[in-house]
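[job 0412] stage=complex_fold ligand=pyridoxal-5'-phosphate status=START
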Amino acid sequence: MARDDPPKSGIRDAILWHLTYTLGKDPDHAQLFDWRLALSHAVRDRIVDRWMESARATRRAGARRVYYLSMEFLIGRLLQDNIVNLQLADETQAAVDSFGLDYRALLLDEPDAALGNGGLGRLAACFMESLATIGCPAHGYGIRYEHGLFRQSFAAGRQVEAPEDWLVQPFVWQFERPEARFTLGFGGHVATHQGKPVWEPESFVQSEAFDVPVIGWPGNWANTLRLWAGRAVDPFDLSRFNAGDFTAAAEAEALARTISRVLYPQDSTEKGKRLRLTQEYFFSAASIRDILRRFEGEHGDLRLLPRKVAIQLNDTHPAIAGPELLRILHDERGLPFDEALDITRACVNYTNHTLLPEALESWGEGLFSDLLPRHLQIIERIDAADARAHPDRRGGARDQGRVRMGELAFMLSNRVNGVSALHTGLMKTTVFADRHRLHPDRIVNQTNGVTPRRWLLGCNPRLSRLICETIGRGWIADLEQLQRLEPHVADDGWLGRFAAAKAANKADLCDWTLREHGVALAPDAIFDVQIKRIHEYKRQHLNILEAIALWQAMRDDPGAGWPTRVKIFAGKAAPGYVLAKQIIRLINDVAAVVNADPATNERLQILYLPNYNVTLAERLIPAADLSEQISTAGKEASGTGNMKFALNGAPTIGTLDGANVEIRERVGAENFFLFGLTAEEAEARRLVPDHAGRAIAADPRLARAIEAIRSGSFSPDEPDRYGDIVANLTGADYFLVCSDFADYWRAQRQVDRAYADRDGWARMAARNLARSGWFSSDRAIRGYMQDIWGAQSLLGRE
Ligand code: PLP
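[job 0412] stage=complex_fold status=DONE, emitting structure tokens
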């Protein structure tokens, strides 16, 4: 190995070069970790040229750039994705084999970058990948959390949270940009100089940039994900140190770093107030400055901004970016307020992700003005302008002493989008009904999507190989081509290969659960999977109630020909969400009893896997037979897990909620197990007095399952452990678990019957695959480019 340039020709030599010269390791003594880092460097080298060329092409074209602002990017592991997108999988595997290493183990050695809670953050990650695949010039902006989403384990069935520490290891994919810093102010007051308001902040923090290149398929274009970290303006106070106050000497740095220390483990409940608002302003303000710096370097005239810049707010977390942009344009660049407002509105767009009232962000005005006094004044002016333009409006951004971020984001956006057809419709009639009346063209729909590179090609190599052998490789960039599988579904030989791929994926999962968790699963069982955040609206408790009822029915009638079922759960609860944590414990308690019952455990197993993350999703989804998407209708904005299962050949059991509606339309009603109230019926049912009591009285199975929980069958040492859950179910039951139980039970028995016909089931699963092409995030991003951003692909132009 020569000390010359790292070899560009072959990945094998490049790995050895980096092992030696970047990591300083003798191959004879290198650990898996060293090999993984060396491989990551070798892969990164192959991204950099593309990355720089993409940046040059964007500058040359003077094209409109897209800026995707998101508090969360749940990117997971990047090594495999990058290898896949560079089309290096075969060569890399051969190189790794030649070193006598296990390729899969090497890929799995990388820790997940868990910079997100769930669907919203994972969507942002899929979108970044699709933007690069399409060749749309784009930046993602987020926060480089030192500690991503907490690590979950169970102690006696209870969720235990431990800090996540992905940055303890070198994160090879990032490039530190110490030169790209901005100084951001907080607090203070607004003074008047020469008749103009001037914000005089009380304290300052610096934002330091870390860039992660995101390479698209098949390796032709790369964009940047820029993550901000908090740094002190004066990191070290030498005089305090010399005076012997060593801790205080570093206090400023510790405080500044706190801003990017932790991802809030909240999913859809409001919490962590001051630091959370600080984080939101910190990353939004740094991003706006960076956007303006780049724009002014390229174009100059601020009136051109809307033609060159499209900003997307992923939920309201970055909504303060709007007032910040307006503030800079008006206060610092001197544009008249109304013009600054028009320019801001022409640049900014907002994606709404939830209708749950508790998840719609709002801040007390006291806190807001304490932290961002000038922004509160600006919001007042925006509100006043809006009230003048729409004297009949029902409310503004400021309401009863609070700043409502959804209203603010709506007022400052050119387009506001929902994330599934149903959700967008409900936005128009519920949270934004009044705004929609005033601006009937502003709300548009962009149904979510998922990247097929990670969620099929990368995570399910067996199925991908079969697809490629059948219809070629065009589907990877054009997922609708999966339709070309349709004629093969009727071919028994092909269907056998399809079913064999699923069986092999299930066998892999069985090996893994045995190895990692000491649990032997029945490989021939229906793998019935519900993996997602734990939330009452997602109704994991409906699933476990059905499991209890099924167990009881099996005990009553062991000879009834029950098919074997494995119910798999995974998911984290927000640490402060008490009921969600009780649901976790209940599932674990029920699992312990049911799995230990010799009368049924050949037929029913329940497994709750800890620490759900992207890697676990990549492991479970290819092995699933049945996808549980059972939220209360009207509550799940879209879901993206639902799409991943369908794409991997797992039919859905689900309600008419979120994107389930569109999945069912596309895969066909006969390939989807529908149950439950519609969103409209759910609203009406809530008005029926004692709807839960009536449902329980009408269904002995449900009554008995609840009674088993109530009487302590699953918690004999503490019979009233689940008193709150039982009270909730039998009382208000806002999420209508009881009302939907009977129909869920019916649909599950329909699943039993359908699964007994193995060929029929395989056909249904294959049709889910063949008809899921529309759920690609490439399609979603093209929709944003056309309907919202007015952005163009730069690939193939030069
Ligand atoms: N969390 C992770 C790790 C995921 O991969 C996904 C989507 O696949 C989600 C959360 C969102 O799941 P759902 O759409 O089912 O809520």
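The domain at 62-77+112-448+782-789 is CATH 3.40.50.2000 (Rossmann fold).
[job 0412] exit 0
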